[in-house]
Amino acid sequence: MTINEILIGTLEEIAPAYPWELDEESGDERSQRRILFNYNTVPDFFGDNAPVYEKYLIQVHFFCPKGEDSITSRNLIKRALFAMSDEWPEEILVHQENKQAPEEQHYCFEVEYLLPIDWGNEDG
Fold this sequence. Notes:
- By secondary structure, the chain is of the alpha+beta class.
- The chain has helices spanning about 5-10, 70-85, and strands at about 15-20, 35-45, 50-65, 90-95, 105-115.
- The chain has two helices and five strands.
- The protein is elongated.
- The relative contact order is 0.21.
- The model has no long low-confidence stretch (mean pLDDT about 90).
């Protein structure tokens, strides 16, 4: 499975989940409750001068309507990410810097995840 498939499978029961770059809709077309994710990678655990794993530095963004009691959903996200990674995620309230009051809540969860590198027939 790809990291995208793993994250979508982990989070889709809480709210619609998809990669950040697919969040192209704006305004009324966009779901008010949604989960977006993005990640960077770094090599990890080396053998014979080649990485054995790729470490994903994941950010999961949860959006919900302003005024919604989001504690239960946020706890479900943390538990799901913990079950996926065996690491308790950090939770960050994202403040939006604009002149208008935000119409939605935005929280970011950060977690790391290791996937083995498939070298196929290559030496590595």
